[in-house]
Amino acid sequence: MTELRSPTAGDADSAQPLSGVRVLELSQAIAGPTCGRYLAAHGAEVIKIESLANPDIIRMMGAGWLPPDTPMPVRFDTGPLGAEFISGKLSAGLNLAAPEGRDIFLRLVQESDVLLTNLSAPVLPALELGYDNVVEVRPDIIYCSLPGFGNTPSRYHDFKAWGPNQAPLTGLDHMTGWPDRAPSGVGSFSYPDFINGSHAMIAIMAAVLHRDVTGEGQFIDMSQYESTVTVIGPTLLDATANGHVQGRSGNHVPDRSPNAVYPTRGSDRWVAVSCETEEQWNILCRLAEDEPFTVDRRFATLAGRKENEVELDAAIAQWTSRYTSRDLAYRLQAAGVPAGVVADQPDLIVDPQLEAREFFNIKPHARFGADLCLGYPPHLSATQPQLRRAAPIFGEDNTYVIEGVAEVDHESRVDLAGRRVVFESTDPERTFKRPYVGWIRHFIRATEWPPE
Amino acid sequence: MNTKTNGPLGGARVIDLADERGVYGTKLLADLGADVIRIEPPGGDPMRQLAPFLGNQSGPERSLVFSYMNTNKRSLVADLSATSGMDILRELASTADVVFFSGLSEEYDRLELERLLTDNPSLVVAAVTPFGLTGPMRHWRGGDLIAWASGGLAFTLGDPDRPPVAPAPTAHLSYILAGQYSAMASLAALRHARRTGAGQRVDVSLQESVAAVSGESGVSAFLDDGIPRVRAGSKRPLTAPLGHYPTTDGYASVLALMPNHWEALRTWILEKTGNEGVMDPALAGGPQSRAGGAWHVVNLFTEDLTKHYSRQELFEEGQRRGIAVTPVNDAMSVVSDEQLEERDFWTELDVAGESVRSPGPPYRLSRTPWQPGRAPGVGEHTEQVMAELHGRRAGRPSAPAGA
Question: Is this structure's pTM higher than 0.80?
Answer without folding.
Answer: yes
